[in-house]
Write a structure and sequence with these properties.
- This protein has about 120 residues and is of the alpha/beta class.
- It has one domain: 3-Layer(aba) Sandwich (Rossmann fold).
- About 40% of the residues lie in helices and about 20% in strands.
- It is built from five helices and five strands; from the N terminus they run βαβαβαβαβα.
- A five-stranded parallel β-sheet has the order 2-1-3-4-5, sandwiched between helices.
- It is globular, with a radius of gyration of 13 Å.
Length: about 120
C-alpha cells in the first residue's frame, strides 16, 4: 500500500519542490495551501506523514498540528515542520506539540529525504 503524505505550504512553488523531491518514494501526495484547507484530508483515513509550513494565512502550521493531533487517528502520526522561522520559542512550542522534525528552508533534497524516510519508519 502506498504511503500517504500531506504537504501544506502557502507557496505553490514550495509544494511543487517538495512533491518533486518525494516522487522517489512512490507515495500518494495530497497538497493544501493552508491549514484550514489541509484539515479536509484528516477524515479518519490513514495518513503516514504531515509536512507543513509554519507561517501561512488562514491557519498556521502550529494550529493545524494542534487540531490534527487532537484527532485519535492521528495522535501518533509523524509531523515535519518546514519553515524559515528561527525563533527558539517556536521550536520549543513545536517540541511541546510532539512535532517529529523541524526542517529549515531552504533544505538540501538528500538531507530532506533522509528525514522523511526516518519519519515514515515511525508511521503506523
Amino acid at each position: 500500500m502506498k504511503r500517504r503524505i500531506v504537504i501544506v505550504d502557502d507557496f505553490e512553488n514550495t509544494r511543487w519542490v517538495i512533491e518533486f523531491t518525494l516522487k522517489k518514494l512512490d507515495a500518494e501526495i495530497m497538497k493544501a495551501s493552508n491549514g484550514r484547507e489541509a484539515l479536509a484530508y484528516f477524515d479518519g483515513k490513514p495518513i503516514d506523514l504531515l509536512l507543513t509550513d509554519l507561517n501561512m494565512p488562514e491557519m498556521d502550521g502550529i494550529e493545524l498540528v494542534r487540531r490534527v493531533k487532537a484527532l485519535e487517528a492521528y495522535k501518533r502520526m509523524p509531523v515535519i515542520m518546514l519553515t524559515t522561522e528561527k525563533n527558539p520559542e517556536m521550536k520549543k512550542l513545536a517540541s511541546q506539540l510532539n512535532i517529529t522534525a523541524w526542517v529549515q528552508k531552504p533544505f538540501k533534497n538528500e538531507d530532506f529525504l533522509k528525514i522523511v524516510n526516518r519519519c515514515l519508519a515511525l508511521a503506523r
